[in-house]
Amino acid sequence: MKTVLITGCSSGYGLQTALYFHAKGWNVIATMRRPQAGILPASDRMHVLALDVTQPESIAATVKAAGPIDLLVNNAGIGAIGALEATPLSTVRELFETNTFGVMAMMQAVIPQFRQRQAGAIVNVTSSTTLASFPLASAYTASKTAIDGLTGSVAHELAAFNIRIKLVEPGYGPGTRFTENGGDRMQGLIPAAYMPFAEPIFAAFATPGPVTTAQDVAEVVWEAAHDTSPRLHFAAGADAIALANARRA
């Protein structure tokens, strides 16, 4: 039986991915900063562990408790919407701590066991903001785009040890808790001078066209995890797929 460790499983994409892999018969290590009872099924194949990807000691303890794994899914992430002019560098650093350095740290924590076994896979979940430029998302986009470059480079290194690494790029998911989880972080990031520019953008997001569901992402993570071709990028969700196709065209 194979084992997957997934970060950021308290809601949204991570939660659905944990459920999906469990339904497929995998042993699931579902991690989150503050474990919640009742959101995942009681099962001897479902294990919930506390994990803060910004804390080295938390990473070390979780990886040790998880034991050998076959797949790491780096899904944990935080967001912020705002004008760059008004976004404090402390907020930018907060985004990078989770979205970028947290992913790097998790990779460093599991690559040694994969390398020793000459087997294993990593799926990094980023965003469709890496596929096209979105306004009022510059800091968030930067933190996710860094993982795009990181993954492409590391793919060459890990291929020598039979370790696969993939990128999953979800589109806009209004059913997720992106804005809710932004909380205080996003207060004051859009000054009054920017509101004439920002209001039409917010109106468009309030009535979106094709969007991405958590199920879309779970299915594409599964696909990417099993892909043995050189393919690196996997768009998830109708809107992300459209952006990826437009970019290729």
**Distance between the amino and carboxyl termini:** 41 Å
| Helical residues, percent | 40-55%
- Beta content: 5-15%
N-to-C SSE series? Answer: EHEEHEHEHEHHHEH
| Shape designation | globular
Strand order of the largest sheet: 3-2-1-4-5-6-7
Number of domains: 1
Structure description:
There is one protein chain. The chain has helices at residues 12-23, 56-66, 89-117, 138-159, 178-182, 195-206, 214-226, 238-248; strands spanning 3-6, 27-32, 46-50, 71-74, 121-125, 164-170, 233-236. The radius of gyration is 18 Å and the shape is globular. The model has no long low-confidence stretch (mean pLDDT 94). Helices cover 46% and strands 14% of the residues. It has a single domain (3-248), classed as NAD(P)-binding Rossmann-like Domain (Rossmann fold), CATH 3.40.50. The chain is built from eight helices and seven strands; from the N terminus they run βαββαβαβαβαααβα. Helix 2 (56-66) packs parallel to helix 3. It has 249 residues and is of the alpha/beta class. The longest helix is centred in the middle third of the chain and has 29 residues, at 89-117. It has a seven-stranded parallel beta sheet with strand order 3-2-1-4-5-6-7, with helices on both faces.
Brief write-up:
With 249 residues, the protein is an alpha/beta fold.
What's the layout of helices and strands?
Layout (H helix, E strand, L loop, with lengths): L2 E4 L5 H12 L3 E6 L13 E5 L5 H11 L4 E4 L14 H29 L3 E5 L12 H22 L4 E7 L7 H5 L12 H12 L7 H13 L6 E4 L1 H11 L1
Parallel strand pairs: 1-2, 1-4, 2-3, 4-5, 5-6, 6-7
Helix pairs in contact: 1-7, 2-3, 3-4
